[in-house]
Amino acid sequence: MENVRLRKATTKDKAIAVGFDYRLDKEEHIKLNRQEKITKAISNDECFLILADDREVGFVIFDYRFFDQGWIELIVIDEKYRGKGIGGKTFNLICEQCKSDKVFTSTNSSNTQMQRALEKAEFSFAGELKGLDEGDPELFYYKKVKRI
Questions:
Q1: Number of structural domains the chain divides into
Q2: Measured in Å, how far apart are the chain's first and last C-alpha atoms?
Q3: Average pLDDT value over all residues in the chain
Q4: How confident is the model at residue 148 (pLDDT cuts 50, 70, 90)?
Q5: Collapsed DSSP state (helix, strand, coil) of residue 100
Q6: How far apart (Å, rounded) are the C-alpha atoms in residues 145 and 70?
Q7: Angle CA 110–114–39, to nearest 5
Q8: CATH of residue 31
Q9: Strands (E), 53-137
């Protein structure tokens, strides 16, 4: 997958984004009411489809609600496209378009695949928060955005 780009999701793309999330973890999708979250992100221009070689392979929700810093709230890449560098390229694209000095994100301590991807994309560990998911602390990461 050489050519990775982001395209702002529209209401016509809602089923695509919802489908990626649903297929990834049906139970979590329903429990966390992700369809509503995705719908809201699309209407707020905060949801982007991830395209690799012009094929939709996932989506990312990005906003500035985390202390006015860039915040990757959710990134979902279809399982068959993982491990191909798409996540890293997506992180770079987000950082390039970011209007703040830093981009933050978080993941559960059990999500070692995401942790490896963040470290590979040169995100730094910021800290740990206990109490969100019992027995599975939330790990926070950030990356300074280079300004030209």
A1: 1
A2: 27
A3: 94
A4: low
A5: coil
A6: 10
A7: 100
A8: 3.40.630.30
A9: 55-66, 69-77, 102-108, 124-129
Q: Is the pTM of this model over 0.70?
A: yes
Give the per-residue pLDDT at 27. Answer: 87
DSSP assignment letter at 146:
P
**E-assigned strand segments in the chain:** 4-8, 47-52, 55-66, 69-77, 102-108, 124-129, 138-144
Instruction: State which residues form the domain around 102.
Output: 4-144
What is the sign of the dihedral through the CA atoms of 16, 21, 22 and 24? positive
The first and second tokens of residue 26, run together, are: 């049906």
Arithmetic mean of pLDDT, 124-138: 94
Contact 49, 17 (CB under 8 A): yes
Q: So what's the pLDDT on residue 41?
A: 98
CB 140 within 8 A of CB 69: no
DSSP 101: S
CA dihedral for 110, 111, 113, 118, sign (positive or negative): negative
Buried b (16+ CB within 10 A) or exposed e, 92-131: ebbbeebeeebbbbbbeeeeeebbebbeebebeeeeeeee
Position of tokens 């740990």? Answer: 128
Work out the number of other CB atoms within 10 angstroms of the CB of residue 132.
10
